[in-house]
């Protein structure tokens, strides 16, 4: 049991570190590049297309492999098939999330990745983001 | 000299590899908003999931800081002022939890398995991201 917990912590730590490194390398910690992608009516920046394309390509292969796996390395069950139900929460939540993403150029991953390097402004953003996450629990 | 799109693709492959490691390793979808929000409600999951979320967020926060402070990477500050950061942060945090996912969970992990919810969410938040940029420009928020 303790061994599984150690393995779990190491896998999650390395995944988070690789995710953070990928965000830095890809330029996605630069809010100007993110907003450049969303700026269809200005100076459009296609970088995010390549970031998404690379990440989705790797994961498309990974999901095919995952379908043949019974258990993860820690012994946890693999995720079941994705739910098909499209509800109002999905659309309304994604609308609000998208608006905020376009306003500041940050989504949760890059905001966390910038936490110690983006000055006080990013601390303000992350504090507000956590408050928004907390507020969403009242809806549940 | 690598161009922006080459670095974007390389970084994207790294993000995909991180999500694959998380999936194969702990059997979970790597969604940043869910993992971060999980830290706010430790009671919502067992001790296993708590360790997972803390370790993931520590790696996600620490690695970019190491790359910027010890390596060649550049850190970036926000483009907009505090009032806009507060509004945007509230929208990003609230919206991603209501939709149960963000760019990593719905985008990277959902679209890649052709999940209907992932595709619908991604199309929606990109469309409204475009609106967000237009609103910011119209309001003079850079």
Strand residue percentage of chain A: under 5%
Greatest interface by residues involved? A-B, 116 and 113 residues
Radius of gyration of chain A: 18 Å
What structural class results from the helix and strand content of chain B?
A: mainly alpha
Structural class computed from helices and strand pairing of chain A: mainly alpha
Number of distinct helices of chain B? 6
Share of helix among residues of chain A? Answer: 55-70%
Number of domains as seen in the coordinates of chain A: 1
Q: On the 0-100 scale, what is the average pLDDT of chain A? A: 96
Structure description:
The complex is a heterodimer of chains A (140) and B (142). Chain A has 140 residues and is mainly α. Chain A has one domain. Chain A contains six helices and no strands. The longest helix of chain A is centred in the N-terminal third of the chain and has 25 residues. Chain A starts with a helix and ends with a helix. The mean pLDDT of chain A is 96. Chain B is mostly helical and 142 residues long. Chain B contains six helices and no strands. Chain B starts with a helix and ends with a helix. Chain B has a domain of 65 residues. Chain B is 73% helix and 0% strand. At the A-B interface, helix 1, helix 2, helix 3, helix 4 and helix 5 of A face helix 1, helix 2, helix 3, helix 4 and helix 5 of B.
Features:
heterodimer; A: 140 residues; mainly alpha; B: 6 helices; globular
Write the SSE topology.
The complex is a heterodimer of chains A (140) and B (142).
Chain A: H1 2-26, H2 31-38, H3 47-66, H4 88-104, H5 108-113, H6 119-136
Helix pairs in contact in A: 2-4
Chain B: H1 4-26, H2 32-38, H3 47-70, H4 82-98, H5 103-111, H6 116-138
Describe the structure in brief:
Chain A is mainly alpha-helical and 140 residues long. Chain A is built from six helices and no strands.
